[in-house]
Design a protein that fits this description.
Length: 147
């Protein structure tokens, strides 16, 4: 198992940041590599909600089913997915920092017996993607604040 974690300070209240990052309508705006996302369950976002995300990975489009495994507005959301024997768990944790938000994005990657050797490579790529994703969220709220 490999774990990658990054933190960014976002210039907005925790409720606004959580509403943005937990809404699949916006995921392709901020999450690196996501081409599209579609909810596959009806109703409010909640534990057990599912979606299908299409990602661009190493020049190929990969469809990944997602399941929300924790949903605690406005402070925490965990989404899990498994593709080709590799299981990923992404956790977004938010906490107030004055008038800003500390946004922590952590990802755990776990391969099967046949794919465990790929964990370090996937984790290395995930670290860069998480950095870029957090920068996109920060830039969105900086632009909104200056408008």
């Amino acid at each position: 198992m490999q774990r990658v974690e990054r933190i960014a300070t976002i210039p907005a209240p925790v409720e606004e940041v959580f509403a943005y990052v937990s809404d699949l309508e916006h995921i392709d705006e901020w999450q690196t590599g996501v081409v599209s996302a579609e909810r596959t369950t009806d109703g409010e976002m909640r534990v057990g909600a599912t979606a299908r995300v299409v990602r661009q990975l190493m020049g190929q489009r990969v469809e990944a089913p997602l399941t929300v495994t924790a949903f605690e507005p406005p402070t925490r959301m965990v989404v899990t997915s498994e593709v080709s024997g590799v299981r990923a768990s992404a956790e977004l944790s938010l906490q107030p920092s004055g008038s800003d938000t500390e946004l922590r994005f952590a990802m755990e990657i776990r391969g099967s017996m046949l794919t465990a050797f790929m964990e370090p490579m996937i984790a290395g790529a995930a670290g860069g993607d998480i950095d870029t994703s957090l920068q996109r969220v920060k830039a969105r709220f900086e632009k909104q604040r200056s408008a």
